Amino acid sequence: xxxxxxxRKIKKSLKQTIWxxxxxxxxxxxxxxxxxxxxxxDAVKNGIATEFPRSTKAEIKVFREMLDKEVFVTDxxxxxxxxxxxxxxxxxxxxxxxxxxxxxxxxxxxxFNFVNAYLLFQKGEKSYGNICCMAVDTAWELLKTKxxxxxxxx
Length: 154
Hints:
mainly alpha; 4% strand
């Protein structure tokens, strides 16, 4: 069997974008790798796999403003939000991370992202459930790193 090969410039241009197959019955999409797979390359050439749409800077700014709004909720509400999003074995640790992030000036933005994403998820925007999970991961990373010390202050 002959190995799949493409010219260097075509291969480079295919690697610079994300290619996706059409959504299935669960509305999930599979990623295509046309630079390394003959089947995926044929799907791109036939128009089956399409390029992932890129967002403009204005769209990203509106999205960030929507997620970065300062919204505080009570700890009881936060606990119900966490119980709705996370599976049982991750609920307690996620709740602790978010309550600590609420008090920490470095991680409070991740807390706001979680709350705003959950409120959008509750309105029916299913993709914001993933943002809730990423916000908890970000909060955890921000809480475990210590501020950098200035070298001149020895």
